[in-house]
Protein backbone atom coordinates (compact mmCIF):
# COMPACT_ATOMS: atom_id res chain seq x y z
CA UNK A 1 0.00 0.00 0.00
CA UNK A 2 2.84 2.36 0.80
CA UNK A 3 4.25 1.83 -2.70
CA UNK A 4 0.86 2.61 -4.25
CA UNK A 5 0.54 5.73 -2.15
CA UNK A 6 4.06 6.79 -3.07
CA UNK A 7 3.43 6.17 -6.79
CA UNK A 8 0.11 7.99 -6.77
CA UNK A 9 1.44 11.03 -4.91
CA UNK A 10 4.47 11.50 -7.18
CA UNK A 11 7.11 10.36 -4.74
CA UNK A 12 5.74 11.89 -1.54
CA UNK A 13 6.15 9.45 1.33
CA UNK A 14 3.26 8.85 3.70
CA UNK A 15 4.00 8.07 7.30
CA UNK A 16 2.75 4.65 8.33
CA UNK A 17 2.70 5.17 12.09
CA UNK A 18 3.21 2.05 14.12
CA UNK A 19 4.57 0.20 11.09
CA UNK A 20 1.25 -1.03 9.74
CA UNK A 21 -1.46 1.48 10.62
CA UNK A 22 -2.63 4.14 8.21
CA UNK A 23 -3.97 7.49 9.30
CA UNK A 24 -7.48 8.36 8.16
CA UNK A 25 -6.16 10.57 5.36
CA UNK A 26 -3.67 7.96 4.19
CA UNK A 27 -6.31 5.23 4.30
CA UNK A 28 -8.67 7.35 2.20
CA UNK A 29 -5.89 8.00 -0.32
CA UNK A 30 -5.03 4.29 -0.39
CA UNK A 31 -8.64 3.31 -1.09
CA UNK A 32 -8.92 5.98 -3.78
CA UNK A 33 -5.66 4.82 -5.37
CA UNK A 34 -6.70 1.15 -5.32
CA UNK A 35 -10.07 2.04 -6.82
CA UNK A 36 -8.39 4.04 -9.59
CA UNK A 37 -5.98 1.20 -10.30
CA UNK A 38 -8.85 -1.30 -10.49
CA UNK A 39 -10.64 0.96 -12.98
CA UNK A 40 -7.42 1.22 -15.00
CA UNK A 41 -7.06 -2.57 -14.99
CA UNK A 42 -10.46 -3.04 -16.60
CA UNK A 43 -9.89 -0.20 -19.08
CA UNK A 44 -6.52 -1.55 -20.12
CA UNK A 45 -7.86 -5.08 -20.44
CA UNK A 46 -10.60 -3.95 -22.81
CA UNK A 47 -8.32 -1.68 -24.82
CA UNK A 48 -4.92 -3.37 -24.90
CA UNK A 49 -5.17 -7.15 -24.51
CA UNK A 50 -4.65 -9.37 -27.54
CA UNK A 51 -7.49 -11.69 -28.59
CA UNK A 52 -6.40 -14.74 -26.58
CA UNK A 53 -5.78 -12.74 -23.40
CA UNK A 54 -9.03 -10.79 -23.88
CA UNK A 55 -11.03 -13.99 -24.21
CA UNK A 56 -9.41 -15.39 -21.07
CA UNK A 57 -10.09 -12.19 -19.15
CA UNK A 58 -13.73 -12.08 -20.22
CA UNK A 59 -14.24 -15.78 -19.44
CA UNK A 60 -12.87 -15.32 -15.90
CA UNK A 61 -14.93 -12.17 -15.37
CA UNK A 62 -18.06 -13.92 -16.68
CA UNK A 63 -17.44 -16.87 -14.35
CA UNK A 64 -16.99 -14.52 -11.38
CA UNK A 65 -20.22 -12.74 -12.32
CA UNK A 66 -22.11 -16.03 -12.65
CA UNK A 67 -20.88 -17.09 -9.23
CA UNK A 68 -21.84 -13.73 -7.76
CA UNK A 69 -25.32 -13.66 -9.30
CA UNK A 70 -26.38 -17.29 -9.31
CA UNK A 71 -24.61 -18.99 -6.42
CA UNK A 72 -26.50 -20.37 -3.47
CA UNK A 73 -25.33 -17.40 -1.45
CA UNK A 74 -27.02 -14.89 -3.73
CA UNK A 75 -28.41 -11.64 -2.42
CA UNK A 76 -32.01 -12.85 -2.29
CA UNK A 77 -31.09 -16.03 -0.43
CA UNK A 78 -28.90 -14.40 2.21
CA UNK A 79 -30.76 -11.13 2.60
CA UNK A 80 -27.42 -9.32 2.25
CA UNK A 81 -28.04 -6.45 -0.15
CA UNK A 82 -24.49 -5.13 0.02
CA UNK A 83 -24.17 -5.77 -3.72
CA UNK A 84 -26.67 -3.08 -4.60
CA UNK A 85 -26.02 -0.78 -7.53
CA UNK A 86 -23.57 2.04 -6.83
CA UNK A 87 -25.41 4.90 -5.16
CA UNK A 88 -28.28 2.64 -4.12
CA UNK A 89 -27.82 0.75 -0.88
CA UNK A 90 -30.45 -1.63 0.42
CA UNK A 91 -28.41 -2.84 3.35
CA UNK A 92 -29.14 -1.71 6.85
CA UNK A 93 -25.41 -1.10 7.25
CA UNK A 94 -25.24 1.14 4.17
CA UNK A 95 -22.58 -1.06 2.56
CA UNK A 96 -22.11 -0.91 -1.21
CA UNK A 97 -20.36 -3.04 -3.78
CA UNK A 98 -20.05 -3.43 -7.51
CA UNK A 99 -21.49 -6.37 -9.35
CA UNK A 100 -19.08 -8.03 -11.76
CA UNK A 101 -21.91 -7.76 -14.28
CA UNK A 102 -21.37 -3.99 -14.33
CA UNK A 103 -17.68 -4.44 -15.11
CA UNK A 104 -18.49 -7.00 -17.80
CA UNK A 105 -20.95 -4.62 -19.46
CA UNK A 106 -18.57 -1.66 -19.26
CA UNK A 107 -15.75 -3.77 -20.68
CA UNK A 108 -17.87 -4.91 -23.59
CA UNK A 109 -18.83 -1.32 -24.36
CA UNK A 110 -15.15 -0.34 -24.39
CA UNK A 111 -14.39 -3.18 -26.80
CA UNK A 112 -17.22 -2.15 -29.13
CA UNK A 113 -16.24 1.53 -29.05
CA UNK A 114 -12.55 0.84 -29.64
CA UNK A 115 -11.97 1.76 -33.30
CA UNK A 116 -8.61 -0.02 -33.49
CA UNK A 117 -9.90 -3.47 -32.47
CA UNK A 118 -10.59 -5.86 -35.35
CA UNK A 119 -14.17 -6.98 -35.87
CA UNK A 120 -13.15 -10.54 -34.98
CA UNK A 121 -12.22 -9.41 -31.45
CA UNK A 122 -15.62 -7.80 -31.00
CA UNK A 123 -17.43 -10.89 -32.30
CA UNK A 124 -15.47 -13.28 -30.06
CA UNK A 125 -15.94 -11.03 -27.03
CA UNK A 126 -19.66 -10.76 -27.74
CA UNK A 127 -19.96 -14.56 -28.00
CA UNK A 128 -18.58 -14.80 -24.44
CA UNK A 129 -20.56 -11.95 -22.87
CA UNK A 130 -23.97 -12.19 -24.61
CA UNK A 131 -25.13 -15.51 -23.09
CA UNK A 132 -24.34 -14.21 -19.62
CA UNK A 133 -26.23 -10.97 -20.25
CA UNK A 134 -29.25 -13.03 -21.35
CA UNK A 135 -29.07 -15.10 -18.16
CA UNK A 136 -28.68 -11.96 -16.04
CA UNK A 137 -31.67 -10.38 -17.79
CA UNK A 138 -33.78 -13.17 -16.27
CA UNK A 139 -32.40 -12.63 -12.76
CA UNK A 140 -34.96 -12.40 -9.96
CA UNK A 141 -33.59 -9.10 -8.69
CA UNK A 142 -34.80 -6.13 -10.67
CA UNK A 143 -31.61 -4.01 -10.55
CA UNK A 144 -29.58 -6.95 -11.94
CA UNK A 145 -31.96 -7.72 -14.79
CA UNK A 146 -32.28 -4.02 -15.60
CA UNK A 147 -28.51 -3.60 -15.83
CA UNK A 148 -28.20 -6.64 -18.11
CA UNK A 149 -30.52 -5.13 -20.71
CA UNK A 150 -29.74 -1.42 -20.35
CA UNK A 151 -26.14 -1.23 -21.53
CA UNK A 152 -25.94 1.87 -23.73
CA UNK A 153 -23.73 1.71 -26.81
**Overall average residue pLDDT:** 77
Which residue ranges are poorly predicted, with pLDDT under 50 across at least 5 consecutive positions? 81-96
Overall outline: globular
Estimated structural class: mainly alpha
What level of helicity do the residues show? Answer: 55-70%
Per DSSP, the total helix count is: 7
Radius of gyration: 18 Å
Kindly report how far apart the N and C termini lie. Answer: 36 Å
Q: How does the SSE layout of this entry go?
A:
Elements: H1 2-8, H2 24-48, H3 51-70, H4 75-78, H5 100-113, H6 119-137, H7 142-149
Characterization of this structure:
The protein contains seven helices and no strands. The chain is globular and about 45 Å long. It has helices at residues 2-8, 24-48, 51-70, 75-78, 100-113, 119-137, 142-149. Helix 3 (51-70) packs antiparallel against helix 5 (100-113). Residues 81-96 have low confidence and may be disordered. The longest helix is centred in the first third of the chain and has 25 residues, at 24-48. The protein is an all-alpha fold and 153 residues long.
